Amino acid sequence: MSGHSKWSTIKRKKGAADAKRGKLFTKIIKEIMVAARMGGGDPNANPRLRSAILAAKAENMPKDNIERAIKKGTGELEGVHYEDLIYEGYGPGGVAMMLEVLTDNKNRTVADVRHVFSKHNGNLGETGCVSWMFEKKGMILVDKSGADEDRLIEVALDAGALDVQETEKEFEVTTPPANFDEVKKAIEEAGFKPTYADVTMVPQSTIRLSGKEAEQMLKLMEGLEDSDDVQKVYANFDIADEEMERLSA
What we know:
By secondary structure, the chain is α+β, with helices and mostly antiparallel strands. It has helices spanning 3-13, 15-21, 23-39, 47-58, 63-74, 106-119, 149-158, 180-189, 211-225, 241-248, and strands at residues 83-90, 96-103, 123-124, 134-143, 163-166, 170-175, 194-203, 207-209, 230-235, 237-239.
């Protein structure tokens, strides 16, 4: 399983702590505002906004907060103007990394991001240095326990998925970005409950990390995602399941 998929499992374990700090709500509100500004306030006609609203509802964000964020994005209410940026860099062991950032102050954000990279044996790179290593795809993870593999494959492929891969603990369903919502809906209606579902950047290959480099990589991922301005982090690393369990304990 890719490092990104494994990292999503760790994030689920630490999700309660993130929510307590308020960071998760802050990031979702920013995403709703930018999505509404770029594509309009109607989620039926704006896939990015629709995904952001689903993420907000999954975290039990109050309806008023969602509606207020949409209105700030469309200009009906006064709000902060956020820029939608991509940063690229390298982590321990030469791992390629991409960051989706929403910020109202680029100078502050780039300084913060560079500091986190340096602290954990990574470095911020130039635009375009690693983006060619990633491809945008929908990814849906389904826990293997109790899941009918043949049925999942049938439902996913019929709905427009690209592939279904089996890992040690989960099935990974990949989709074209345009088919993500339809495939996710079909999987859920068939009775499967995804443990992770998002449109993400999937690496073409991965670098296996172990020992100190693996530990540094996870700390770098966590440090970057602790930033209010960093929305998502993608990286092409892999860590053995046994070591991942030890590091995430």
